[in-house]
Structures are given as C-alpha cells and as structure tokens.
Design goal:
The protein has one domain: Beta Barrel (Porin), CATH 2.40.160. By secondary structure, the protein is mainly beta.
Length: about 375
C-alpha cells in the first residue's frame, strides 16, 4: 500500500450507515467492534472477492469486457474487490468510510476518488431523523453491486447503467422499525463532482412487511448536461421499484426501472425512454448449497443511457437485450461463498456488438467462478 493510500486509510476513520436498495437478503459482515463512552461503537470490517471469468467475446488480456463492472477480465484470475469499512455510531453522530481496491474500483468507480467507495458523516436532528453528508452508495435500483449483496455474482445490464455512487446530503427518517424514508440532494447521476451548476433530487422509500419480505421505491430527477448555459433541458427522471420475499427455502427478488430524459431521442427533439426489469430466484437446497437463476431485460431504443450506434440495418439505435443467468453456490461458512455461474446475453437481432471466432454476433456467453469472504 503506497503512502497516499495509507494516509487515506488513517484520515478517513470516520462515519456510518447507508441503506442498500433492493438488498434485504444481503449477507452481514463480521466485524471487530470497540465500545466507547456513551454507548458509542467503532467497528472495523472487511470483504474480499476473487474470481476467474471467461467470455466468448474476449477482448484480450488486460482489457475489460463490454458492460464491465463485476469480474470484468476474460480468461484470467482477478480480484474484484478488497475493501475495509470503518464505522462509528453514537447517540447523536455517526459516520462510515469504505475504502476499496481491485477491478471494481477501476472498471466501475469514479476515476477522481477511485479508492473511496463511500464516506459520509451524520448528525441526529431529532429522535427519528438524521442528516448525512458526503459520498454515498447509490439509492437507485434493485440489485447491489457487490457479489455478496446479490443472489448472483454478476449484475444485470440495467444495474450496470444505474449510478453506483453519488455525493450530496441525505435526510433519513425512520418513523418505525418497518418504514424508512430518504430524501437526497445530489450533485448528479453517478458522479462525485458536479459537472454543472444544477443540483438533483432523489428519494428512497423502503417498507419491511416482516423478516421475510420488503418493498421499495426510488427515484432520481436532475439535468446533468455538462454544457454551461445550455438552454435545452435534458432533465432525467429515473424511477425504480423492487420487491423481495422469502417462502420457505425459496427467495425471490423482482425489480423494474423506467427512465425518461427530455430532448434525447435520435432526433434530439423528443423525450427518450428506457425500461428494464429483473427477476431473481434462489433455492437453499441445504444449509451450505443453493441454486439460483435470474432473468433480465433492458430496452434503451434511443440510446441515451447505453450508447447510440448504427445497427446492421443502418438504423440509429441503442441497446435492446435479454439475459438469463444460472448458478450454484456453496457456503463453507456463514461469511463466505464459492459460486459458479453462467450467463447468456441476447441482443436484438440487428445489434451485433459481440465477436465470436472473429465474426460479429448478437449473443455472448460468460462463465464466472467467484470466491468471497467477509470478516
């Protein structure tokens, strides 16, 4: 660890808790806790995920595949993340700092604050209301980013295009143990540093029916056009709804997104829309073995979120695809896992963005082997 990162580790021993949307079934980290005066606690925890991945459209050693986030390098062993969390909780103040290193910070995170996953401080305004400020994990979406937060090791294409991180302030209101309401003022969509003089708004509302199920809704509204004085509005409204439930040994996760952005279709004069959805199922066959599957779709026909390109027919379009994932999980202990999974992505027939044996194709198959430990 170089001197710069060491300094960051020491100086950011701060601050506490964020709600991860759509992640009621995530594993809890083991941690070392130190009690301080006035019932305050300071915890240190860690997480490591290593992988081997193979993609049929391999882009060669050292390069990232299309939709790079989790396990992004083909035909090689890699480290998704090695992270450490410092968390402080007291009666009137709290905070968290999470530092990470590996392929995920390089492929999916901010290049400006690359080693900071999140860092924010909070003060209690009244009994059930907190104000937090700093760098947060995203409040939008059904899946988390980290393999330990999801049924699967990979994330859906929809999650890939959602923001992973954000910066601003957050009001966190918990009227009771089941309901949580978060209101955010942010610099923008998936950015730490603002790229214009406009601020964005966000909301996250989660409700837990019981320890078996929860539902949540999140949204984002903002104009992130980086051109100063641009008179054309590109306001984006992104909405996400998710539902988690467990019946016996079967866990289910369902979510959908709808996003609209003004003046963003292929002509630039009309609004563009994106729709997506994900359905995940996990069956716990024994205490240590589980099988899981996920179906996903992503439709961004105007390409304002994915990319705009000419398909085989010469039409200007954006990504439209479906995907199916299946895998098996073995948990040697409660805080570890080994997963083997495969996914097939199928683009629209005219969207041949992958390669196979030197030829363009509209499908890709990937195989991931992940090993993770929380401590």
């Amino acid at each position: 660890m170089n001197k710069k990162i060491s300094t960051i580790f020491i100086s950011l021993v701060l601050f506490s808790g964020i709600i991860y949307p759509g992640n009621s079934f995530a594993q809890q980290n083991d941690s070392t806790a130190f009690k301080q005066k006035d019932s305050a606690t300071f915890k240190v925890s860690g997480y490591i995920d290593a992988y081997y991945a193979y993609y049929t459209d391999s882009v060669g050693p050292g390069n990232y595949q299309k939709f790079p986030s989790v396990s992004p390098r083909s035909n090689q062993f890699g480290l998704n993340t090695a992270q450490i969390t410092f968390q402080y909780d007291a009666e009137k103040v709290r905070g968290v700092a999470v530092l990470h290193y590996g392929d995920i910070p390089v492929s999916a995170w901010s290049s400006t604050f690359n080693n900071i996953m999140e860092a924010h401080a909070g003060v209690r305004l009244c009994k059930k209301l907190w104000l937090d400020a700093g760098f947060f994990r995203t409040h939008v979406g059904t899946e988390g980013l980290l393999p330990k937060e999801n049924f699967t090791s990979s994330v859906s294409v929809n999650t890939y295009y959602e923001p992973y991180y954000e910066s601003g302030i957050r009001l966190n209101f918990n009227p009771n143990e089941k309901l949580a309401i978060n209101i955010l003022v942010l610099n923008g969509y998936g950015i730490y540093q603002d790229n214009n003089d406009k601020k964005s708004l966000g909301t996250l509302i989660t409700y837990a029916f019981n320890d078996k199920g929860s539902i949540g809704y999140s949204n984002y509204t903002g104009d992130d056009t980086p051109i100063a004085g641009d008179s054309i509005s590109h306001t984006r409204i992104h909405q996400s709804l998710f539902f988690n439930y467990q019946i016996g040994k079967l866990k289910m996760q369902v979510g959908g997104d709808y996003c609209i952005q003004r003046n963003s279709d292929t002509t630039g004069a009309k609004s563009a829309t994106m729709t997506s959805g994900v359905l995940g199922l996990k069956y716990q066959a024994t205490t240590k073995f589980a099988v899981y599957a996920r179906e996903e779709f992503f439709s961004d026909p105007q390409g304002f979120m994915s990319t705009r390109f000419a398909d085989e027919n010469g039409k200007q379009t954006g990504y439209v695809l479906n995907g199916i994932t299946a895998g098996v999980e073995y948990k040697p202990t409660d805080n570890s896992y080994i997963r083997l999974e495969t996914r097939n992505l199928q683009m629209d027939n005219a969207q041949k963005i992958f390669t196979w044996n030197g030829k363009l194709t509209n499908t890709r198959t990937e195989v991931l082997l992940n090993l993770g430990v929380s401590f």
